[in-house]
Amino acid sequence: MNVIDTKKAPGAIGPYSQAFEVNGVVYTSGQIPVNPENGEVPEGIAAQAEQSCKNVGAILEAAGSSFEKVFKTTCFLADMGDFAAFNEVYAKFFVSKPARSCVAVKTLPKGVLCEIEAVAVR
Question: What is the pTM assigned to this prediction?
Fold first, then answer.
């Protein structure tokens, strides 16, 4: 098991790692839309979805993987009313159309609107 850690994505805000690689499979923790350079969260679902995707991408890259190698994601939305706008951004990054679950949750850390986790091959 290898811990994946990169400064190009936000550090963990709890007792967990950004990701683990086990037997060539990368499991990311959920990535909220925190900009790793300044700790800020952008306004609106489109900007937040983009930042969450960028954070996932940075972790995948650090693990020797990429968006094209993702085969499963789990997405969390604070409001299903944001589903279409979220999908529009998500589709630009996850072009291989991995298997996905997308659920609405009551709240997310830091009051953000979305969170994305991914599973990929290295």
Answer: 0.96
